[in-house]
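Hello,

I think I submitted the S-adenosylmethionine job twice by accident. Can you confirm which output corresponds to this input? Input:
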Amino acid sequence: MQLGKCHNPEAPPIASPPTSSATMPLLDDPTPTHHQTFRLHSINSTILIRQFPTQGISFQLWPAATTLLTLLDRHPTNTTPLSSSFNICGRRPRILELGSGTGVVGIAAAALLGANVTVTDLPHVLPNLQFNVDANAGILEVHGGAVDVAALSWGESKDMEAIGREYDLIIGSDLVYNDNLYEPLLETLKFLLVGLGRSEKKVVFVMGHLKRWKKESAFFKKANKLFDVEVVYNDAPFDGSRIGVTVYQFVSKPADKLNT
Ligand SMILES: C[S@@+](CC[C@H](N)C(=O)[O-])C[C@H]1O[C@@H](n2cnc3c(N)ncnc32)[C@H](O)[C@@H]1O
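Support: Only one job matched these inputs. Its output is below.
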């Protein structure tokens, strides 16, 4: 079993930008698919991800996912500001990913951290998520990680109860993009991070986010009442853009400082 990879002095290059195949239909399916590979230098492996660019936001890769992937790939050398969050030594880490979309971040986390990862999304997204998990079964077997796929609609108490709270780390990328989803997402984070009764340990939520709208400040204003929110990384802007991905860490405020 591969544990949390706490120490590895050899510095790898950062994850390569993804390489793409042309967008083309499968022989027996008219929906255009797009297969992308992601090189994980630190473990000398490649992840393959299927996307359906015409099928909506859940079926394509968003920018913050690439940033999280790069930070995860740097983790074995402790050259990332997230090392303390990713460094779960002593046993196999349990990680929950919210709004996984194509699943690339969760699959990479499982392989890079040797973790048990549950990737989640809305029910209609799960078949493609499962396809991508299955497509990478080989690298998970080699590196000791495991990935489960589960439905988690934010704010749905039945889903949240089924998912449970037994995680060491919660991750997510590009989840704050629609103001109708701020409340359900915060509700889910509250369930996962607040009042766990584990005084010795705080569960951390690591979120990659590309700012697009001024109104997103409403999400962070509400989040700040429940969590200590810290910026841990600012990625360089993409070509032609002024803004890069920011990575935040959320931890529950102490009970006496909660402002709910
Ligand atoms: C912008 S995409 C980001 C996908 C992926 N994390 C990435 O970075 O490539 C947002 C994701 O959140 C999911 N999502 C939207 N509303 C949701 C909800 N109410 N409950 C759970 N997931 C939701 C979408 O299906 C989608 O996969």
